[in-house]
Amino acid sequence: MRDITKEEKQMLNKACISYFEIIILIIGLFAFSYLIYSYTNPSNNKEIIAEEKKTDSTETASQIYKTAALGCFQIIALMIGLLAFSYLIYKSTEISAAETQLICCSKTKSGKWCEMDLPINCDKSDPSYVTYLSNCSEVDAGWCEKGCCQSNKDGICNPVSSKGTCIDLNGTFDGNDKKCAGPNCRLGCCQLGSGDAQLTTQAQCDFLANSQNPTIPKEWKPELTNEVQCKYSVQGSKEGACVFYSGKNKTCVYTTLDDCIVRTGNATNFDVSGKYCSDPSLNTTCKAKDHKGCIEGKDDVYWFDSCNNHEGVAQDCDLFSGTYCGKDDSKKYICKDIDCVIDGVERKNGESWCEYDNVIGRGKDPAGSRHVRHVCYFGTERTEPCVDYRNNICVASTATANDGTEFSQAACRFNNWGKCLELNAKKSTSEMLEKCPKNPDCWVKHIDMDGSFKFDVCLPEYPPGFDLYDETSESVTVTGDSLCSIATQRCTETWICGIFGCWCVDNCKCHTDYFTEEMNEFCISLGDCGAWINYIDVWTGGGIGTKSTGEEEAPPNTLGPGYIGFYKARAGTKPADPGTFEFFNSINDENLTNLETYELSMNSSTNITQLNEELAKTQKEMNIAKANLQTALDSGDQAGIEQYSAEYMALEAEYLDILSQLEVAESTIDPYAFQAELNQVAGSMGSPLLLYMISQDNASLDPASLNQVQSNPTTAGSYFNAFSSVRAAISAQIVQKDIKAGGFEMIAALLAGLIAYIITQSIMMAFLAALLAYLFALMWIMFVYIDFHCGMWERPSGNADCNKCNVIDVPCTKYRCQSLGELCKFINEGTSDELCLALEENESLPVIQPFYSVITQGYKYTEISQDGFEIRTLDGKCVDPFKMIHMGITVDPFAKCRFDTDPTKKWEEMFYEFGLKGAQILPAHQLDLMYPSPESVRNSFAGQTLCNTTQNPCKEQYVDGKKTMVCQPCNLTEAEIEELTKTEIFVKCKTASGRQNPNPYHIRSCVNPGPDLTPPVIRTVTPNTGSYVKYNVTNMTIITYVDEPSQCRWSIEDVSFDDMDDEMNCSINVITDYESLMIPGVNASEIRVEYGLPCFANLNVTNSTKFYIRCQDLSEERNNMTQSYIYEIQHSQSPLTIIDFRPVNGQEIISGQDPASVVLKVETKGGAENGDSKCQWYDNRVDYNRDFFTGDYTNKHDYNWTSAPRGNYNITFDCWDVAGNEAQNSTLFKLIIDSMGPVIIRVFNDGGLRITTDEPAQCRYSTKKNFVFSNGTEMTTSDKIEHFAPWTFGVVYYIECRDEFGNPGPRIMASPFETYQY
Amino acid sequence: MKNKKSQITIFIIFALIIVVLILIFIFWRFQDNPIVQIFDERNPQGSIETCTRMAVEDAIARISNSGADISPGYSVQFMNDEIVYICYSGENYKPCAYQRPLLVEHIQREITEYITPKIADCFEKLRFKLKESSTDVIDTPGIKVTTNIYPKHVEIRIQKDFQIIREDRTINFNNFKINMLHPIYDFADIAMEAANQQAKYCYFDSLGYMIINPSFDINETITGRSDRIYVLTERATEHRYQFALRSCPLPPGY
User: Fold this and answer.
1) Strand-strand pairing, A1222-1233 and B240-246
2) Whole-Å CA distances, A812 to A228, A820, A826, B83
């Protein structure tokens, strides 16, 4: 019996106590119930009274006492039980609260190392066993240090293994070799006597041989590193008849010679002629062709004799032509057809292809869709869904087999969508336009609204999927929101208006369907954004919105299911493109030539690998010739001297020739850059091994490289930096055109002139009209702003389709399930009962109420009804101007809410989400509202064209043949201002079941009338006061945010507003400026609170560090700030410089491992804070080799780059400080991997056995041929070149030398002989 | 009064039923499922071998189901099984770090730790049986069990001094060696190959591997959370082994 551990005992005790307590509680409950029953039940009371009549008073008293005592006992028991139970619950809660967080234990109590477990399960018996709060796979210290772990049992190497486990299991740990690139872990071809071969380490080869049969000869070929070549390098036809007597019978086993010796102890029993056991000449009891059967690992059907020895091939099967040995239905062995017929299409064994849920490409992959790879293997079809969220895409191509047949190959490979967005950050659009189409994962979307709103953007061909609803945090993913918002753009239509009407002159398509269609296509290409379908074709349109400053000019703000066909017709082709060399190029765009050059170099005879091999070979031959020459010189052998000197010189010339060829080759192509580039793509070639096998003749690539074709998404996180660049790039394209729009006043004037000319036929009148139009603005420009909002794709309401996820062909996942409906919930994740569950529909309409506990202090909800409420001060007054009011609503059932100023709009048509979480189904939503002052409204509107009030309404006119509302310029009256400042918003909410409140919820408020008597307030200034400025900078731009429309000035002296000379450029339009900030997805309320209206200033900072800013509002009172806002800066005293870096320029780093560890160091000086800076490094050759130096601002930076492959490096260090001072420096260094062992170039007697190696080495010897290096006797050495051992006559020394990286050189045998003195 | 008594009786019966149910639950909860063991006092070695074989088969079945452990450590739940991550990356985009390096040695240790008390129990029961059949047994305390797994087979060595004295004849049993055909080593080898590839390249070409090594079938499933579950099956014997990897995971909309 196993001993119970202390912990288990404790647990057992706790369990016993718990059960005891539960029992007491249950019994107590019954007893207490009974007690209550007995005292409260009237029938019982009657019974007691009746009894009292019958018995004497003593008996009654006794009965009562008994009952009371019993009751007391029961109450006490119940109380104890309750207390115990409460304690139990408390304890369990305490444990779960404190100790349910998984942490990384150096060692767990169950003996596992570096394992995620509960803190209570961590072994703390040894001080070296520590715990880490991060994930174990990220911890690289102490017992959890990561390194290469090699088994001492079978020699298998495991990279990135923890030290604790490795040492505990008696493995050999090397913390410096994380990826097991050392000599002991190198793979070679292990050929075993039985005819089997596989890629192994040398130690594993020994193990395999010994574990099967120690006498089986084995051969390890380190030079053969290709798995396919290794596998098929062994011809297993070394078998023969092994004849022996079993009792009186002469029997036979058809086997190898080695096995025969093991079985019979004698080689003479083995028939070398290759006869089968049933051969009559052998006279055995075995009868030929007794039955058929299969041999493990062989394709064909074989004959077997009556002794069950296999004979010749009975039926010739071929794995690659689709047949393999197997049993038919009648259990007979045949060449079984292992090809597949799928939906009438024949697929060969090993063939793979892609299947998609719906359309793919051109950004049209619907929400919830997943790419799936299918494989035909041994007659059956298997389905392999790619990584969800379309992080993998299924790509396919066909290869031609040797027999000319087509062979389809599919693979799930990394979706490089992030690279597409990154391309938009290129310096020029033309560069983006050149590179984007080269990447098959990207496409260029051209948007043109017939004017300045025209841009090109590089978008993902296969948009990524988002976490549509994070059930744990109840928040829609930020990534999705921020990505979608790239397509949130404003188009500005320009109209020229006159007394005869208005003409659109710029971006005239922005108010049409075309704008919404095009922008939505842009939007849906970014991911699960916009108005689009899920993978079962259910359309939702809530992901987009449009609005216009003139309501009537707005384009459609929803698109309906009618667009499914429209967009599907624009989708890409199937299957997805695996990519070509151009694709690789486009990923690493700085190395455009590498791949093509490499391909050429691979096809030509002079490739670098060959040259390197030749160089190494020649160098060794030179060393031997040199050693021989030295020996000849020492011995005075003239003939030898001549022979070896000639040989040496010839080799030296050859060496130099190869070296020059290599330098030329290396200058054009870096093979390791190629390797790194190739490693970018996950299995884009399908199964690399398989492809190699089916088309060896056509294989232009090194199969070893192909085998390593993989995904390297380690830099994917850097794509996030590109998002803001995309917006900037689009804005840059649009803004350029806006500048042109600036001359429209002149066009308007010319138009006026033209009209005058047509009417009067007089040039003079035309000129006069034009002049008047220009001077007096008889014709005017009207700008119409049309905003397009791109948000996350909206899940369909309800639960109707949830069950469609629960199908067998493609497993349901959380992502797929969520895409089917708001009421679809993925349950039992990880179990065999994973299910997309349809939650119950709630048919109730949402009821909205004020969120009573949420409102800014000093304000209240009034006039509350089922239709809405009003916001007023506590004393019932209107809101103070420029006051931010924080308010909220509750909604039952939970719902997502939007608002608009138009009460007629449906939920889908409303533009604004109600607060930051308006798009989520929640019980309450909160919103910040700010109210401008009446005066500021007037100031904003005065002289503007946008004026639509009761007194001065906009009028309908025909513009471009279309009925349009045109507004006239106006100065607002007090009544109009009051009307405008009455803020009314209309709220609609939608539940998960898709129910909306039929009547909008009306939230009203008003702004206090009366003159503005308060001066403006500067809320903040960016950069913050006290900031550093760059060295030698003379001017800097600051932005001051004020709370109301104002005019601001600055000065280097603290003077009054009027005495300040330098004017700031302030935004004064409270309507449009605030409006433009109210973009869903952007925390507009925060912007208002924190910032306000911006004023720009360009400060001259050459000689000043202190500035005074004052503002005056634009009200009639012209309120001034009485105190200046003091803004201070600090100068950088010197430029930031990089004073030291490592590796130094031109350095050669030699390492024994590939990839190697390289320590990058940078030291900075000067700048704003004595050299404290942040730095990053990047490899100029390969785009993705880049990272930041960790740590805060400091002057010394270290980075341990643990995975640098061999090659020439051009690393740039880029540092910057808090002031924005920048410093840059580059270093060129070479990383050499020394994988060759030292060569013993001389062996001679020099008072002992003396050997010379061609590089510093450690040498050991033994008298055993197969000695283990570490067990050998170390030779003495002073310089690591010359090594000594005793000269013992008659002893055979086996000597091996290893260099500092552990690379073994060839083992030599030295046999000292007796020397004679003449 | 009658009514009152019958109610008390019902209450007591209910209470008793609940207590009995709880006791049954407790008993069942702490009761190990007994292993049916076969003993033959005329062939002690055979008995021990049979008994050991059952324990080893049980251990291998558990390990094959979890991928590495008898009692799975940090694992992923898949189709109701707790499958250990052989290699795991907790950080998005990063290649995995080995969780069970030296998997072969680890499995050996797991098997040894699991079967040692069971084998001791086998001896105990054998001793009891032999005594029942009037056979004296000299049984020195202590037992040493060694497990070695090799390609295609598993070897168990038991060192235990065990003497049987029957009719003045003493038979010594000191070393027991049991060989079992099972591809657990080969499974571990493939698992480590897959983990090595994933740790280095974030990619393992399972189809290519299967084509070159047709004796094994590899079925790879990628879950919605980027966990990769591999199910290995030896074609000839249909022995099955499953393990989990998580390498270079990508978050939604990475």
Assistant:
1) unpaired
2) 37, 11, 8, 20
SS3 A958: strand
Q: CB of A743 within 8 A of CB of A713? A: no
Task: Give the bridge partners for A1022, in sequence order.
Answer: A1039
Order the strands of the A489-498 sheet from edge to edge. A501-506, A489-498, A780-790, A544-548
Q: Do B74 and A350 touch (CB under 8 A)?
A: no
Decide if B192 and A158 are in contact by the 8 Å CB cutoff.
yes
Q: Does A1265 score more than 80 pLDDT?
A: no
**If you average pLDDT over residues A144-173, what whole number do you get?**
91
For A604-743, where are the alpha helices, taking DSSP H only? Answer: 608-635, 638-668, 671-678, 688-694, 703-707, 720-741
* Distance in Å, alpha carbon of A349 to nearest chain B alpha carbon: 9
- Name the residue facing B207 among A179, A352, A715 (closest C-beta): A352
**HEC profile of B82-116:** EEEEEEECCCCCCCCEECCCCHHHHHHHHHHHHHH
Residue pair A1277/A1255 in contact (Cβ under 8 Å)? The answer is no
Residue of A nearest to B228 (CA): A387
Token couple for A598: 């490499």
Q: Map tokens 């050999």 to a residue.
A: A172
Specify the DSSP class assigned to residue A427. Answer: S
- Could you tell me the CA-to-CA distances from A212 to A218, A978, B152 in Å, in that order? 11, 97, 9
Domain residue limits, chain B:
44-246
C-alpha A1167/C-alpha A550 separation (Å) is 51
- Token pair recorded at residue A790: 């791109």
CB contact under 8 A, A467 and B1: no
| Residue among A584, A811, A595, A579 nearest A686 (CA) | A579
Percent of chain A with pLDDT over 90: 18
Token output for A9: 């005992």
Beta-bridge partner residues of A270:
A242
d(CA A1071, CA A941): 9
ipTM computed for the complex: 0.78
pTM: 0.63
Chain B CB contacts of A710 under 8 Å are 201-203
Query: Residue B101 and residue A166: Cβ atoms within 8 Å?
Result: yes
Provide the 8-state DSSP code for A1082: S
B140: phi then psi, degrees, rounded to nearest 5: -75, 135
In DSSP terms, A455 is beta-bridged to: A447
How far apart CA A1197 and CA A3 sit, in angstroms, is 54
Q: CA A522 to CA A733: how far, in whole Å?
A: 16
Per-residue CA distances from A1252 to A69, A1273, A1279, A1302 (Å):
104, 17, 10, 18
Q: What is the reported pLDDT for A750?
A: 67
Determine the Cα–Cα distance for residues A112 and A624; give it in Å rounded to an integer.
52
Q: What is the pLDDT of residue A821?
A: 93
Total count of residues recorded for chain A: 1318
Residue of B15, B189, B202 with shortest CB distance to A30: B15
Residue with tokens 């392999």: A384
pLDDT above 80 for B160: yes
In angstroms, the CA A595 to CA A586 distance is 11
The beta-strand segments (E) located in A406-471 are 406-414, 442-448, 454-460
Tokens standing for residue A5? 């551990």
SS3 state at A67: helix
Q: In this structure, what token pair is assigned to residue A591?
A: 């190395």
Minimal Cα distance from A298: which residue of B?
A: B214
- Exposure b/e, A971-1001, CB count within 10 A at least 16 = b: ebeeebbbebbebebbbbbbbbbbbbbeebb
> Is-contact A413 A683, C-beta < 8 A?
yes
Cα A1268–Cα A1274–Cα A1277 angle in degrees, nearest 5: 145
Q: How far is CA A277 from CA A250, A273, A293, A309, A343, in A?
A: 10, 11, 16, 7, 48
Do A526 and A460 touch, CB atoms closer than 8 A?
Answer: yes
